[in-house]
Each structure stands twice: as C-alpha cells, then as structure tokens.
Design goal:
By secondary structure, the chain is of the alpha/beta class. It has two domains: about 30-255, P-loop containing nucleotide triphosphate hydrolases (Rossmann fold); about 260-315, no CATH class. About 55% of the residues lie in helices and about 10% in strands. The chain contains 16 helices and nine strands. The protein has helices at about 5-20, 25-30, 30-35, 45-55, 60-75, 95-105, 110-115, 120-125, 130-145, 170-175, 195-210, 220-230, 240-245, 260-275, 280-290, 310-315; strands at about 80-85, 115-120, 150-155, 180, 180-185, 190-195, 250-255, 290-295, 300. The strands form three sheets. A five-stranded parallel β-sheet has the order 2-3-6-1-7. The protein has a two-stranded antiparallel ribbon with strand order 4-5. Strands 8-9 form a two-stranded antiparallel sheet. A hairpin with a 6-residue loop joins strand 8 and strand 9 (about 300). Helix 4 (about 45-55) runs antiparallel to helix 5 (about 60-75) and helix 14 (about 260-275) crosses helix 15 (about 280-290). The longest helix has 19 residues, at about 5-20. The radius of gyration is 20 Å and the shape is globular. The relative contact order is 0.14. The structure holds adenosine-5'-triphosphate. Adenosine-5'-triphosphate binds near residues 94, 192 and 306. Belongs to the ClpA/ClpB family. Torsin subfamily. It catalyses: ATP + H2O = ADP + phosphate + H(+). This is Torsin.
Length: about 325
C-alpha cells in the first residue's frame, strides 16, 4: 500500500516474509486484532514520554497531549484528528511524532504496518507529476484506513510538497461519516513544517527582549499567526490550501526555538545514549557553540538539537 512497502515486497519479499513469520509477536498478532487492540492510546505513557524526553516545548507537548487525550475518549470521532507541527529544524517535530507513534503502536512490527510516513522530498519529488501523486496519495490513504481505521499518517518536509497536492486528501479529513463504506474518523494525520518557524522565533524573541518568560507566550495568537503565514507563504505546502480555508486542521502547533539550556539536555542525553561519561565541560562547550541566533544575543540554536549527535562524535 506504500511505495516503500511495495519495493520491499518486490525486492526482498522472501527475506521480509521470513523475518516477519519468525517473530513470535507477529505470529500471535492477527492483522485486525493488532489494529483494534491498540485502538486506545496509552495516554499515561504518552504523558510521561512527552514530559521527560522532550525539552523546551511546553506549548507543543501541552496541545499534543490534550488533543490526543480528548480523541482517545471518543468512541467514534466525527473526523480524523489533524495536527500541524511548525518550527525551526531540530526542534522536535519528528521526535514528538515518533513518541506518538510508539505510544499508539508499541510493537515495532505493528507500528510499521499502521504508521505511514510520507516524505515530500522522497515520495513527491517532481512537481509536474502532481496529478499522479494525488491519485496515489488518495489510494494509499483509502487502502490503509480500510485495513486499519486507527492509522497514523505523518507527512514530513511539508514545505517541499508540490502545490495543491495536500488538498487532494481534503475529503478524508473533513468528511463526517463514511466515504464509500470507509470510516476515517479514527485516523490521525500529522503535518511537519518548517514554515511558520520564523514567526514563532520572532514572537519568542520579542517576549525575551521584553524580559517575559517563554511560558507567557499565548498559544492562541501564535496559532492564528501560523495558519495565516502558511496560507500566504508560497514556499509552504499549505499555500492557498483548502485544508486551511475549510478549517480541517484541528491544531497548529508551535515548536519554540531551543535555547542553550535545552541543547545542554540534548547533549547530555546523547552522551548517555552513547555510553559516555556526562562531561560537564564538553556539554557546555557544545551547547555554547550551538546557541548561535541572533548573532548578538546567541539565545537560540538555529539547528535545534539536530546536529548534537555529530558534535558529540566529533568531540569524544
Ligand atoms: N525538543 C527536543 N527535546 C529533546 N530532544 C530533541 C528536541 N528537539 C530535537 N531533539 C533531538 O534532535 C533530534 C532531531 O530532531 P527532530 O528530527 O525531531 O527535528 P525536526 O523538528 O523534525 O527537524 P526538521 O524540521 O529538520 O525535520 C531528535 O531525534 C532528538 O534526538
């Protein structure tokens, strides 16, 4: 049902089948059973993951948790849950998506089946093929939701999406009820964008310059600024999009730029992950070097925590 899955099936079909069949969990898990068994999200585990693993994103973690908790309580939601993540590179958009996916489907083999990742650069590279992509995208979504209503779709690199492509999935996101016998209300859609990141940073910087804490930044103002910006920005996958016009995106979620203290935590986690001693001098050195924006104040890391692992490797 997906390009990656299809090529795997053709290329290494036998090997993959053998691998799947040799895993106990897979054998035990009947297709539908696995889909419906995890129909409810593990909210306490999600809360714990967001609280302890994500640094400096109090707005994003708050909204994500609230949205998913509310969604999990409804037996038959009228429409899919649609969240759009916005922020600079390396601020945790993919990271939080992965935390959501892990809590929705803890078993990796099952997750691979019901969590679908679309990378605009990889899957939709040629703007001139947009009509073909539209059809493929609709088929993937229809096919996967038919197989499992609680499917998670993650669209990364939204800024590289060919114009108009995302509008092709409007019916699935907005329709109340079934379309041709398929119910879409249990699906979850996440869109990951860099567009909106500059606005978020400007607002955060403004608050900092007024000596206000980032905790004081009001979510509502930021959300409406993001939706306006991405609608009017030609370089956004949502430029002039019907998804915005028809209000099918439930939440525009801001990811704040990461500060020195947050990068420190990322470095610490990376050192621990690689089994190294938590050398405070090294942590300080890397975090200081990464806090590079604006050039005078050097308050934020323009790459977030994205290059932390390579910086650690270089300095160890
Ligand atoms: N807020 C955060 N808290 C903890 N770790 C983070 C955070 N942000 C980023 N990281 C770390 O940095 C890595 C890269 O971040 P991630 O891929 O989530 O960035 P992104 O916002 O999706 O960037 P891009 O827009 O370039 O895709 C993550 O895998 C994680 O290890």
């Amino acid at each position: 049902l997906e390009p990656i899955t299809t090529s795997l099936a053709i290329g290494g079909g036998a090997a993959v089948m053998w691998q799947l069949l040799s895993q106990d969990s897979w054998l035990k898990c009947h297709f539908w059973e696995c889909c419906s068994v995890k129909d409810s999200l593990d909210i306490p585990a999600l809360k714990k993951g967001l609280k302890w693993e994500v640094f400096g994103q109090h707005l994003a973690t708050h909204v994500v948790l609230k949205a998913l908790s509310a969604n999990a309580k409804v037996k038959r939601p009228a429409k899919p849950l649609v969240m759009s993540f916005h922020g600079w590179t390396g601020t945790g958009k993919s990271f939080i998506s992965k935390i959501i996916a892990k809590n929705l489907y803890p078993l990796e083999e099952i997750r691979r089946r019901f969590v679908h990742q679309f990378d605009a650069v990889l899957h939709f590279p040629h703007a001139e093929h947009v009509n073909r992509y539209k059809e493929q995208l609709q088929n993937w979504i229809r096919g996967n939701v038919s197989a499992c209503p609680r499917s998670l779709f993650i669209f990364s690199e939204m800024d590289q999406m060919p114009h108009g492509l995302i509008d092709s999935i409007l019916p699935y996101l907005s329709h109340h009820g079934e379309i041709d016998g398929v119910y879409y209300g249990k699906a979850i859609f996440l869109f990951l964008n860099n567009a909106g990141g500059d606005t978020i940073t400007e607002v955060a910087l403004d608050y900092w310059r007024q000596q206000k804490g980032r905790e004081e930044i009001p979510l509502k103002d930021l959300q409406s600024q993001i939706s306006q910006e991405i609608f009017n920005n030609r370089n956004s996958g949502f430029w002039q999009s019907k998804l915005i016009q028809r209000n099918v995106v439930d939440y525009f979620i801001p990811f704040l730029p990461l500060e020195y203290t947050h990068v420190r935590e990322c470095v610490r986690v990376e050192l621990r992950f690689q089994g190294h001693h938590e050398d405070e001098d090294l942590i300080t050195e890397i975090a200081l070097a990464m806090a590079d924006y604006p050039s005078n104040e050097r308050l934020y890391s323009s790459k977030g925590c994205k290059t932390v692992a390579s910086k650690v490797n270089l300095n160890i």
